[in-house]
RNA sequence: GCGGGCAUAGCUUAGUGGUAAAGCCCUAGCCUUCCAAGCUAGACAUGCGGGUUCGAUUCCCGCUGCCCGCUCCA
């Protein structure tokens, strides 16, 4: 979707490293080697995430008259997910065409007979690296890129279509060595030995293509070429075996193009579990929070004296057996969603979708994600889910690319419709004023909680280069969270930890603030060091009790403390008594 | 899912077929009146499992995980 992705892997690495070092996010099961696609939030991460969820709840539920909360069960009945369509399309074994990726039901692939052409190719990069390694091992100086370039050029220039792998690799190596006269192999090494080493060690990429009735082998070659070029092999020159095999009544080939199909696989992306006394009942870990909202829509309506339009909000865990978790916490197998299903009259759906988009954009601004880092994708026809009349993706510029944070989708009355049908019970709404009966339509703003936490971290991360009076350069690492999202709101330090009076006053301040916000007492090392420690975890304010606080420099300063600001590093003096209101105004 | 690369202390990196090194961080103490000072002492590592070997962190294989490029995302 995104066309101007700017990625910064080095920045991402620093963020991941900071998250671990300071206790924001750890890999789940790390002690035992790690569990792919699962993450644990550490002491600071859980505060950050909680701040986000609490603020979302406050803004979405508590400060609105028209949205109610719900906390549904994670274990979900099979029938619910059959009705919703989550079980249906994915319960049969499926095959993929290895060339076009077309997905076919395994039991519906027709039996085909005919000649099959066998292709075998190797990645030129792989060959290049093997060669470089061998040359180096045998005393030559050879950077891998150089061997790679030379060898891959040789590889894509087939001498003859039917020449063998041994011949082609031999020729490539000879060409390479003659082009690099400085490389001398030791006397004990022969080119056939290197060729044998390479071929024994290399991974080949094989493909079979059935020559369809009425077509010739050229068409099969075309299919193979597409397959290899999609994998970075521009010219499948290394054809080891171009012999033709006969197959009869095989269901392993795509009837459209003759390409080989993958083995049939179960494609359910939901996590299943067993329960009941004998463990023979099936339930699913919900793949989205939305379904319990649809299923309880009528109960909420009947028990809370609400009228359409109104919404039901839910924040909680969902689970998907993602094929390919990637990008730190961005795509996880276990993740948290913040969703609203907003029920409305069919005439209002489009308008409300736009209104929710605006409300959500304001929310992101309020948590410190600037509007200019967000991209709104108006998902075009054909790319939306089939039931959706309008979908906006709200995307953020992550260091690994522009990726979706939230989808605002107008889902029509599809969801209530399928559950009405599945359960055999009416979900029609009766409007007392207009005497109108209809099945409500739904607008769904669905945000990824973990993704948003990650966006907060990425947005907040900053490195500032400082130069002191002596010209000494220092890098200050800061998380510039807006105060309402910061895991710790204020650090409290005695200037000298040996001064009992300062420590006592600090502890008093700590006690007085703790009921209102998360604070952190620290007396270790020099005060400057403590400031920097708090910068690194995004604490917006630090309070220092010093000798002025004790009245040693006059009555005017007695009972006041230094407040130091994270972003500017500037300080101001405030009376202890006014700290709480001063802070509350800034961290809510 | 495909391919490539990588795996040594909390972090960043050395190094070795025979006792694993350093800086930062951390802990304790000394010192210290506002931005990562200094001194002393201390804790902490070869991802997991096989194989070769008298001996493997090092070489080989498998697994797991991470990163990159494709793919996928109901």
Topology, pairings included?
Elements: H1 9-21, E1 25-27, E2 39-41, H2 43-62, E3 67-69, E4 75-77, H3 78-84, E5 93-96, E6 103-105, E7 112-122, H4 124-137, H5 144-155, H6 165-179, H7 191-201, E8 204-210, H8 217-229, E9 244-250, E10 265-266, E11 272-275, E12 281-285, H9 290-303, E13 310-319, E14 334-344, H10 349-366, E15 374-378, E16 390-398, E17 401-412, H11 414-423, E18 429-431, E19 436-438, E20 441-448, H12 449-460, E21 461-467, E22 473-479, E23 490-494, H13 500-513, E24 519-521, H14 527-537, E25 541-545, E26 560-565, E27 571-575, H15 579-587
The protein binds one RNA strand of 74 nucleotides through helix 1, helix 4 and helix 14.
Describe the structure.
The structure is a single chain. The longest helix is centred in the first third of the chain and has 20 residues, at 43-62. The chain is built from 15 helices and 27 strands. It starts with 8 loop residues before the first helix and ends with a helix. The strands form 8 sheets. Strands 3-13-14-20-17-16-15 form a 7-stranded mixed sheet, sandwiched between helices. Strands 24-23-25-26-27 form a 5-stranded mixed sheet, sandwiched between helices. With 588 residues, it is of the alpha+beta class. Helix 2 (43-62) crosses helix 12 (449-460), helix 5 packs across helix 6 and helix 6 crosses helix 7. It is flat and about 100 Å long. A hairpin with a 4-residue loop joins strand 18 (429-431) and strand 19.
């Amino acid at each position: 979707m995104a066309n101007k992705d700017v990625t910064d892997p080095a920045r991402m690495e620093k963020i991941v490293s900071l998250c671990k070092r300071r206790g924001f996010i750890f890999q789940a099961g790390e002690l035992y080697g790690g569990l792919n696609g699962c993450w644990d939030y550490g002491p600071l991460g859980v505060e950050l995430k909680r701040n986000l969820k609490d603020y979302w709840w406050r803004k979405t539920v508590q400060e609105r008259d028209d949205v109610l909360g719900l906390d549904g069960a994670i274990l979900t009945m099979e029938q619910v997910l059959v009705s919703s369509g989550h079980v249906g399309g994915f319960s049969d074994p499926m095959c993929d065409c290895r060339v076009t990726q077309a997905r076919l039901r395994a039991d519906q692939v027709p039996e085909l007979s005919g000649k099959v052409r066998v292709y075998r190719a190797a990645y030129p990069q792989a060959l290049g690296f093997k060669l470089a390694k061998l040359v180096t091992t045998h005393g030559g100086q050879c950077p891998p890129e150089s061997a790679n370039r030379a060898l891959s050029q040789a590889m894509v220039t087939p001498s003859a279509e039917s020449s063998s792998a041994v011949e082609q690799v031999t020729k490539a190596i000879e060409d390479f060595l003659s082009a690099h006269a400085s490389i001398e192999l030791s006397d004990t090494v022969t080119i056939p030995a290197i060729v044998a080493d390479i071929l024994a060690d290399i991974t080949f990429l094989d493909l079979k293509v059935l020559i369809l009735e009425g077509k010739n082998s050229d068409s099969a070659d075309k299919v193979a070429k597409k397959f290899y070029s999609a994998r970075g092999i521009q010219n499948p020159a290394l054809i080891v075996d171009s012999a033709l095999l006969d197959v009869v009544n095989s269901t392993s080939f795509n009837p459209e193009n003759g390409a080989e199909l993958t083995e049939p696989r179960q494609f359910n992306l939901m996590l299943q579990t067993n329960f009941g006394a004998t463990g023979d009942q099936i339930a699913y870990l919900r793949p989205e929070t939305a379904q319990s909202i649809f299923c309880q829509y009528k109960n909420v309506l009947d028990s809370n004296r609400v009228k359409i339009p109104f919404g039901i909000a839910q924040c909680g865990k969902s689970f998907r057996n993602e094929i390919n978790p990637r990008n730190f916490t961005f795509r996880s197998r276990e993740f948290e969603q913040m969703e609203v299903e907003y029920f409305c009259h069919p005439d209002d759906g489009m308008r409300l979708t736009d209104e929710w988009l605006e409300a959500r954009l304001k929310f992101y601004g309020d948590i410190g994600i600037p509007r200019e880092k967000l991209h709104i994708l108006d998902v075009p026809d054909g790319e939306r889910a089939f039931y959706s009349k309008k979908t906006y993706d709200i995307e953020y510029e992550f260091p690994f690319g522009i990726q979706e944070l939230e989808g605002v989708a107008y889902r029509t009355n599809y969801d209530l419709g399928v559950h009405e049908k599945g359960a055999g019970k009416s979900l029609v709404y009766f409007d007392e004023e207009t005497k109108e009966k209809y099945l409500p339509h739904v607008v769904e703003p669905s945000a990824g909680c973990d993704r948003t936490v990650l966006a907060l971290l990425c947005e907040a991360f900053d490195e500032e280069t400082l130069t002191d009076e002596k010209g000494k350069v220092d890098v200050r690492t800061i998380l510039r969270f807006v105060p309402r999202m910061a895991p710790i709101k204020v650090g409290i330090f005695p200037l000298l930890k040996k001064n009992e009076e300062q420590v006592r006053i600090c502890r008093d301040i700590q006690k007085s603030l703790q009921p209102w916000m998360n604070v952190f007492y620290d007396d270790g090392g020099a005060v400057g060091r403590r400031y920097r420690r708090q910068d690194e975890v995004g604490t917006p304010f630090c309070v220092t009790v010093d000798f002025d606080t004790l009245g040693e420099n006059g009555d005017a300063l007695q009972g006041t403390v230094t407040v130091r600001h994270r972003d500017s590093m500037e300080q101001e003096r405030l009376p202890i008594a006014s700290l709480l209101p001063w802070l509350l105004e800034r961290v809510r």
